[in-house]
Amino acid sequence: MEEINDFFETNRETWNEKVSHHAASEMYDLDAFKQGRSSLKKYELDALGEVNGKSLLHLQCHFGQDTLSFSRMGARCTGIDISDKAIKLAQQLNDELALDAHFICCNTYDVNKHISEAFDIVFTSYGVIGWLPDLKPWGKIIASRLKPGGTFFMAEFHPIVWMFDYLEEPPKLKYGYHQKEVIYEEYEGTYADERAPMTSKEYGWNHGLGEVVTALTEAGLEIEYLKEHEASPYDVLPNLVATENELFVTKDKLYPLIFTIKATKP
Questions:
Q1: pLDDT in tens, 154-202
Q2: What is the 3-state secondary structure (H, E, C) of the chain?
Q3: Which CATH architecture has domain 2-159+208-264?
């Protein structure tokens, strides 16, 4: 467990360093966001629909753009993230935009130490579960924080995407779909700004779709759907091609880039 905590601390330090670079990046476009542009993408907007008046818990929220976008739509939002600098910026944005979201700095596994409220919606998206070594406690935390009849929704990069080493050119199929061993990567810059003057040091874990679904169903959730999508809303992988509807696909479309899951608590 001590080794896992060291991995988490390294990741936290890297995410802390990423915050200022991401806040200044074209990808996050903070100026447009402050002027009213939503950061939410088609998959989550289509899945969750009207959120006005609903309570929403956002796991691994980074510096809160999606959380605050839901808040603008009328949801009562709480966001959590492991990065204290991200949470500080999220709270600053909340205050600047005169919204009523609430932010807590904690590890995903420690949510129940900080939050006792049950929510209408639990949400997480895009590059989240790979930071967690074990999804069983993750599933239990989600179920414990949902009201009966509540909805869990996630949009995430497909497990096939994480089988490649993108530090190689061209990317090399290197990691196992069911790999249990931790994956360590060290590289210059960050996904939002490859020229950022920082070294990203990251420990991550691969999780197949079966593991994700099983973690949720064993926690008592009922899966409404599992969908796989060939298009990503983010241009964060090598050599993607833009589509007419502002999504990105691989040239050959041989495998999906995104999966989405919607589940309910009975």
A1: 999 999 999 999 999 899 999 999 999 999 999 999 999 999 999 999 9
A2: CHHHHHHHHHHHHHHHHHHHHHHCCCCCCHHHHHCCCCCCCHHHHHHHCCCCCCEEEEECCCCCHHHHHHHHCCCEEEEEECCHHHHHHHHHHHHHCCCCCEEEECCHHHHHHHCCCCEEEEEEECCCHHHCCCHHHHHHHHHHCEEEEEEEEEEEECCCHHHEECCCCCCEECCCCCCCCCEEEEEECECCECCCCCEEEEEECCCCHHHHHHHHHHCCCEEEEEEEECCECCCCCCCCEECCCCCEECCCCCCCCEEEEEEECC
A3: 3-Layer(aba) Sandwich (3.40)
